[in-house]
Amino acid sequence: MNSALKAALFLGALAPLALGAAIYAAPTEGKTQANRGRCFAYPKDQTLRGDLLAGQEYVFFNWTTNCTSATSTSVTGNVWLESYLQRLVNGQWQTLASGSYLFANIGPGTYRVVVKNTSQARAFYTIRHGHALG
Length: 134
What we know:
alpha+beta
């Protein structure tokens, strides 16, 4: 083999190694990427069972968040149960959703889920609720 061919083969074998080192260079220090206002932790939904006395109203969940995410609540049981998803606005609770299934995309703020028994008898319930943390 002549020396020119040997040199070409040798350089040809080294070229991918040099190129690979340039492509796979260690990253430089950069800024961490923010979550862009979205919540990042989604704990397991909570399920509660029990009963409410006639006319009783109860706040089942109350939380404050600094991010945007979905929240969902389902209330099953007696037909006389009323449920509300509310947000605290200027010291007053504002209803965002009502019914057996409460779904909303919520932003930063303070929220709660309220269930009221409107009947004259004890009402049994199952409530399942989930929201993100952040």
